[in-house]
């Protein structure tokens, strides 16, 4: 009885924290990782730095929305599979509901150019820079790891694609293994555990591939628009590496040429998606609503995020045992260093390049960073200050 009461308390805590993040996490997937790091690692200590970096590296390997998958993993650590679902719902539903409402009352508001939106972009600069500094301190302690982070930074800047990120992680992992395989690192004391059975892991991985390969066949055998929608959104969520920015053009290819949604409607929804917090994959909610009403919006959200859930639940049961393997531990030294470089690369482009245009933008970013790093103010205060600052800048 006491354990069930504690579990209910954990679930409620997960819901409250993830919902607050879902309401305030602007700036795209890399910024979300910064918000998660600040809230879950620094403030609440639900995970240690090492486990968080390992989880981020794992989710970078998986297709789908990396930041959402990290959030699901953290929820699982805190409250089991139900905790993962609650964490996902809290982080995702605010933007889903906002986009469903926007699509229902579709008009061109020009929200993508609003001053407070530009202010929130500058908030993302401060948040990501703070996160990168914290991770760099822990995961690039020597010249070897600093060099690997620099390699990942240069590679992903010169070849900006999801595949270059994966290549950077793989190469850094191989180099880390070669350089550290003879080191006696001792047994890794597990500070977190993922309460998922391997049987459930096998079932989820099997479902992921079965749905991916069988859906197109079923689609061709039937004339159901709902099955066609499910296939398009599920495939988009299954085959995209690199997060939400990559899925947007893929969704355009799926739905604009087929006539399900007009180019003007698509662009209006694209602007609205940039304006709301939370994962960019929630753009599916907008498209689904335009096509089939609010039911279509919820259906599309379920379809595009289902692959992310199945992959996380399928892989996490095996992650702890892999992390205990000395060879994997050696490789993870390089992988974690590469993640620092990738985050720094993303800080420059697209976050910095789309946010810091004028000297006054940099001044606001410096103020927001100081509030976060030096004055230790909570993230929601920084977000609110950034939004107000963005409005004031628009009048300058």
TrEMBL record:
Superkingdom of origin: Bacteria
UniProt cross-references to Pfam families, sorted A to Z: Chromate_transp (PF02417)
Recorded name of the encoding gene: chrA
NCBIfam families in alphabetical order: 2A51
Family (UniProt): Belongs to the chromate ion transporter (CHR) (TC 2.A.51) family.
Signal peptide: none
Organism listed in the record: Oceanobacillus luteolus
Membrane topology listed for this record: Multi-pass membrane protein
Protein name: Chromate efflux transporter
Keywords: Cell membrane, Membrane, Transmembrane, Transmembrane helix
Major localisation: membrane
Residue ranges of the TM segments: 82-106, 118-136, 148-179, 200-218, 298-319, 331-351, 363-393
Location of the protein in the cell: Cell membrane
């Amino acid at each position: 009885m006491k354990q069930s009461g504690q579990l209910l308390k954990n679930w409620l805590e997960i819901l409250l924290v993830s919902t607050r993040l879902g309401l305030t996490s602007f700036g795209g997937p890399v910024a979300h990782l910064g918000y998660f790091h600040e809230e879950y690692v620094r403030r609440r200590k639900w995970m240690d730095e090492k486990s968080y970096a390992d989880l981020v590296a794992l989710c970078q390997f998986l297709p789908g929305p990396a930041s959402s998958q990290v959030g699901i993993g953290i929820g699982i650590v805190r409250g089991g599979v139900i905790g993962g679902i609650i964490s996902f719902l809290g982080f995702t539903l605010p933007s889903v509901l906002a986009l469903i409402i926007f699509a229902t009352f579709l008009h061109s508001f020009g929200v993508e150019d609003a001053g407070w939106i530009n202010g929130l972009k500058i908030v993302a600069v401060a948040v990501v820079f703070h996160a990168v500094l914290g991770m760099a301190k822990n995961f690039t302690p020597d010249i070897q790891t600093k060099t690997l982070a620099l390699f990942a930074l240069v590679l992903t800047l010169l070849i900006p694609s999801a595949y270059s990120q994966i290549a950077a992680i793989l190469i850094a992992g191989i180099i880390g293994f070669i350089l550290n395989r003879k080191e006696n690192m001792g047994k890794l004391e597990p500070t977190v555990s993922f309460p998922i059975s391997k049987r459930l892991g096998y079932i989820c991985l099997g479902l992921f591939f079965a749905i991916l390969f069988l859906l197109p066949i079923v689609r061709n055998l039937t004339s159901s628009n709902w099955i066609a929608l499910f296939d398009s959104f599920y495939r988009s969520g299954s085959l995209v590496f690199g997060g939400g920015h990559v899925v947007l053009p893929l969704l355009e290819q799926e739905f604009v040429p087929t006539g399900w949604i007009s180019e003007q409607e698509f662009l209006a929804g694209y602007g609205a998606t940039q304006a709301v917090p939370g994962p960019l994959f929630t753009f599916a909610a907008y498209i689904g609503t335009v096509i089939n009403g609010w039911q279509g919006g919820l259906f599309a959200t379920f379809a595009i995020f289902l692959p992310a859930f199945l992959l996380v639940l399928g892989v996490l049961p095996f992650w702890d045992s892999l992390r205990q393997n000395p060879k994997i531990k050696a490789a993870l030294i390089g992988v974690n260093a590469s993640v620092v470089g990738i985050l720094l690369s993303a800080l420059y482009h697209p976050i910095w390049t789309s946010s810091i245009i004028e000297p006054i933008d940099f001044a606001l970013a410096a103020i927001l960073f100081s509030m976060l790093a030096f004055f230790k103010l909570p993230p929601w205060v920084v977000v609110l200050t950034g939004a107000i600052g963005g409005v004031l800048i628009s009048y300058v």
